[in-house]
Amino acid sequence: MTDMTTTAAAAAAPATDPNAVGYKMTARNVDVYYGETRAIKDVSIDILDRTVTAFIGPSGCGKSTFLRCLNRMNDTIDICRVTGEIKLDGGDIYDRSVDPVQLRARVGMVFQKPNPFPKSIYDNVAYGPRIHGLTRNKADLDEIIEMSLRRAAMWDEVKDRLDEPGTGLSGGQQQRLCIARAIATSPEVLLMDEPASALDPIATSKIEELIDELRQNFSIVIVTHSMQQAARVSQKTAFFHLGNLVEFDDTSKIFTNPSEERTQDYISGRFG
Amino acid sequence: MTDTTDTQTAVPAAAKGPKSKQDIGIGRRRFAEWRLKMYGLFAIAVAVGALAVLLYSIVSQGAKGLSTIDAEIEFVYDPALVDREGDLVKRFGEGADLLASFAKLSKEEQAAVVDRPRKTSYRPYVQAAFLKRLGIDPDDESPENLKKQDEALALLSPRMDVLVWQKIQQDPTLFGKPVKLQFLLSGEVKAYLDGIITKKTPEARRALKDGSLALIDKLVADGTIKYRVRWELLTNKQSTDPEDHGLLTGLIGSAYMMLIVLVVAVPIGVAASIYLEEYAPKNQLTDIIEVNINNLAAVPSIVFGLLGLAVFINFMELERSTPIVGGLVLSLMTLPTVIIATRAALKAVPPSIREAALGVGASKTQAVFHHVLPLALPGILTGTIIGLAQALGETAPLLVIGMNAVVSNVPTTPFDESTSLPSQIYEMASQDKVALWAPVTSASIIVLLSFLMIMNLTAVFLRRRFERKW
Amino acid sequence: MQALDFVTAPNLALVVLALAVIGYIIGRVRAVAASKGDPSSLHSRPGYHAAFVFIWTGLPALVVLAAWVVLQPFYVEPKGYEVFPKSVMESTTQPADLKMDVVKSIAKALEDFSPEQREKLVLGFRDIESALDRAGVAVAEIDQSYMPRAAQVIFETRQSLKPIMAAVVLGLAVIGFIFSIAVVSRRMRARNRVETAVRGMLIIASSIAILTTFGIVFALIFDTIRFFSVVPFQDFLFGLTWDPTFQGADEEGHSVDSRGFGFVPLIFGTVYISFIALLVAVPIGLFSAIYMAEFATPRFRSIAKPVLEVLAGVPTIVYGFFALVTVGPALAEFFTNTLGLEAQGRSVLTAGIVMGIMIIPFVSSLSDDIITAVPQSLRDASLGLGATKAETVRIVLLPAALPGIMAAVLLAASRAIGETMIVVLAAGATAQITANPLEAMTTITVTIVNLLKADTDFTSPQALSAYALGITLFVVTLVMNVYALRIVRKYREQYE
Question: Is the pLDDT of residue A200 over 90?
């Protein structure tokens, strides 16, 4: 982690080459407007490959909004407008030639509330591979589903009841199913919007373990309102406040020795 | 978590292998999306197009029905004609000046005299006046002149006798004087002028032969035939012929029925809603009432007609074909609409209003009637108007209770026989000569739709003007 | 006799109301007087005291009056039946209550007659025949051997009840008036009592909806039973011919030909036309709804949605005329001239297509609501995985919304089955069973209208068969509606 500190120090105004190896996504001067309201103000940030990056901040600070910009989920909201530049592997994701449908296959997303489709567990996980045409036959599909469920650490729990509806699982299982569903399309980046906020502590710890495992293969961005969670699972942490990116640095540095006073105040619980 | 280690080796292969396939499908997937969008747009276009065709068909035909033609022709109420029964001759002696003696009579006596001859007695005189105007000798009985006469008389409405008779009824002093009368021409003449029948229509298939059509052209050319707005559509009673058919009885009948719906359905509906929304405990009974109201809104309207026939006519022995029966039937039909709208309006008033009223010591009833109800009023009014509009256009139950009858007298109370606007339209639409009746039927539909539009626009206006965001 | 003529239910009601208004005024004055110039010393405001007197004077009397009017026939009619000869009472082919309807119409006409005319009813029947005819009595139906006598009995019984009714109703009003005025005082809790009464009236109002349903069921059932006493149930339900031309039973009362009352062609026509209507309305309505819910801009939606709903606001008689004058001839022309098929304006196809247009909004509006109600999280999940909107609709939204959409289709179908004016004008009146959609066919609703719209005698089996058809229609649509509304309700609860 020591080699990261140099880049992290320059987080507010990154000076390094954004296309350097290790950077998965880069955002430059991103503004997001909801109608007339400016929800995100001039945010620039780098997301590293095979790293967990946590977005923290008080509610309404724009961290979820910004997360949704990274796979253009904001496109589904009519009044939402994004300016600035966001690149995935050096390519602008807001470029006209980019199809958001394909983008979202590369940048997957897990939502705050578990949202399995009212279909079987198997069909839930198979949904992505099927619509993207990732498999040639049933055997391939079965393989992907088993792998995804294994990586979501729930294969042993559900392998005998793949035909049962996904909505019948417990909350924690549902969320892991959603994660399995998201990774079944083999995304490069996985966005998680407060994935454990609707879960009990035991289910939460399972999800956190899972995130740590997934780091081996994916670049993960997680929005969380729990500072402890950010400290536990992430290597890099970004602190948002009122639509601004206040500080972005190594997680250890943010939680022990932040350079901004507002970060210090938030971490010590003076607001938020 | 034990299973993660052994799968890690498989990850890169699975992640990279199929990835290239994603790009192959995207064109097809995007096309499928475009296709679905087009299906949707096409479906909406078909629906809107159907509405447009419907309205165009009504308006284009109705425009013809909203105008009428007159031919001003001089007519003399011949003393012999009025005194057909010979009353005046008997009274004043053979050879007396009938005109002078008629003038001496009192108003009542004059009325009695002109009341004697039957409507049909006027026919020869009307026909003679018409023929004279066209320059045809009414008395020449040579074959070619008779043919000419037939061709000319085909233009005249059979209803003209009645009009002439009515005119002298209204004003007996016209007796003996030459009057400029607007002669009513037959529906076929208007149909020819409107282009519904043309010279190209085979002669055998039209009532007016070529000679008659030539006469019409002549009358138009010399300016005898004049177009004007057909106000008689609103002021005339029903008729057997399209040229002087009017909606008066239907308009009055419908107005009475709307009044009854307003007086019966609205208070009951609002009261029921207040109870269900503000007082009723949430239990099985109110649940049943709720389900029941929703179902009632979907019961076929003709069933309400049968209910009206069985209950109001056969059991309560109210008169058939009267607005009171029609109004009660429509009230029962409108009730669910009023209740559903009123409940929605009451629900929209926030509980804080009720709490505020109770907080200053108002009783529950006072809170509801002083605060909640006035705030819900615009919503209730809107729902009521929409319910009334629905009731105004309803036809089927009115046929079952006989409101399609031909009514000879203009109804004065809701207990008199009457028709209704939509059932009159039904009767016109079921006439045999569809093409002749279509313009006036469409014009009547325009009248009906205009009322509906005014009502609905009022509802929209009320909603916009008084809508409150809490 | 003069005074008795005045005693009618509406007149009595007016008198009672007038007394109640007087009571209102007196109650108010007494309450103000009781306050002795200090309004706050009254428990209730003077208006409540006034309303209290009004209610006590008017309500009990009017309730009793209404009950009297409803119950009187149950006392009067048996008196009339006593005069009926035994053969009529025991006839199985023509129930006695059909005869009673004729008798009652005579008795009603008697009320407007002069005393001389009334006497002639039994003695010189011929003299007043035309007067009876004018009063709307089906003179041809009158059996002189017993009907005039029975009518007279009923008339006289009614007359004799009038003074009692007047005494009871007016007496109640006066007692209420005196009692309520007497109890007006400073301490009297008039407001609470008035509010209790108001609440009672609200409850009665909300029970009217239930009463209407009961009314429909009872009204239809009674006459349906009368119908089935003439025509056997199985002949109606399974008969393949609808041609009700026979004139009831013959004089001896046997060998009734009930084969003309076969229900099958009617239900066939109804279902066939509704099926074509759904064939038109379901795809158009569903695709419109999908577009509106998932693809349309808010601006487009705000214009297109009300325009579609106008289709539901156009009266059905207008659609009927449109079908008859525009669509029918156009279709006939197309099939005859272009395809060389034999076709006419009035046909199953014409009625079906136009009805389909009419019910588009019933499908589209509810489907739109249903699709919009699918939670956003499911949409997010699918889009977040990289699905296109079309895939999201097809694979996620439609399956989730399916029960609701089924309910919408069911409601539209029930609307189509019960629809009258379009089929009356555009489907023809031929009761037949054929698969050719270019033929004219008839439906349940058309038959009901044709049976009853003419000024017929409402006691003939033909007229009664309309009730049997009506209750069939009611039950079928009721089942569909209850089922559909239950699905919708469950669906809404699921996503709330």
Answer: no
> Chains touching chain A at 3 or more Cβ pairs under 8 angstroms?
B, C
Q: Do A119 and C388 touch (CB under 8 A)?
A: no
**Within a domain: C29:** yes
Q: What is the mean pLDDT of residues C361-370?
A: 92
Taking the Cβ of residue B26 and every Cβ of chain A, the question of whether any pair is shorter than 8 Å is answered with yes
Residues C318 and C183 in one domain: no
Residues C350 and C442 in one domain: yes
pLDDT band at C488 (very low <50, low <70, confident <90, very high): confident
pLDDT given for residue B374 in this prediction: 87
Asked if pLDDT for residue A13 goes beyond 60, the answer is no
Going by C-alpha positions, the residue among A112, A63, A57 that lies closest to residue A271 is A57
Pairwise CB contact (< 8 Å): B295 & C481: yes
- Of C193, C222, C251, which residue is a domain's last? C222
| Residue C305 confidence (pLDDT) above 80 | yes
Contact: A134, B18; criterion CB under 8 Å: yes
The interface predicted TM-score of the complex, written ipTM, equals 0.87
> What is the average pLDDT value for chain A, to the nearest integer?
85
Residues C326 and C437 in one domain: yes
pLDDT at C46 over 60: yes
Whether C32 is in a domain gets the answer yes
Residue B4's pLDDT is 41
Q: Judge whether C180 lies within some domain.
A: yes
- Whether the CB of C215 is below 8 Å from some CB of chain B: the reply is yes
Q: Give me the residues of A, 94-113, that contact C with CB < 8 A.
A: 101-106, 108-111, 113
In angstroms, the separation between the Cα of residue C399 and the nearest Cα of chain B is 16
Residue C207 lies in domain: 2-222
Of the candidates C382, C386, C400, which has its C-beta nearest A118's C-beta? C400
For chain A, list the strands marked E by DSSP: 23-34, 37-48, 52-56, 80-88, 91-92, 107-110, 189-193, 219-223, 236-241, 244-250
Chain C residues 16-75 with a CB less than 8 Å from chain B: 73
Q: Tokens for A51?
A: 């790293």
Neighboring chains of B (3 or more beta-carbon pairs < 8 A): A, C
- Supply the DSSP symbol for C375: -
User: What's the number of domains chain C is made of?
Assistant: 2
Residue B361 φ then ψ, to 5° = 95, 20
Using the beta-carbon criterion (under 8 Å), do B295 and C485 form an inter-chain contact?
Answer: yes
Q: Mind telling me how many Å the CA of A118 is from chain C's nearest CA?
A: 7
CB-CB under 8 Å, C298 with A78: yes
Q: What is the DSSP string of C296-357?
A: --HHHHHHHHHHHHHHHHS-HHHHHHHIIIIIHHHHHHIIIIIS-----SSSHHHHHHHHHH
What is the Cα–Cα distance from B420 to B414, expressed in whole angstroms?
A: 12
Mean pLDDT in order along chain B per 10 residues (470 residues): 39 40 69 93 95 95 90 81 70 72 76 69 83 83 85 85 81 79 86 85 81 86 86 87 89 95 94 91 84 89 91 81 93 93 91 79 82 89 91 93 83 88 92 88 95 92 77
Looking at the fold, whether C218 and C290 belong to one and the same domain comes out as no
Which CATH number describes the domain made up of A4-267?
Answer: 3.40.50.300
Q: How far apart (Å, rounded) are the C-alpha atoms in residues A179 and A215?
A: 13
Q: Which residues of B touch C475 (CB under 8 A)?
A: none
The pLDDT of residue C259: 64
What domains are defined for chain B? 67-229 (no CATH), 248-466 (1.10.3720.10)
Contacts of B449 in chain C (CB under 8 A): 314, 318
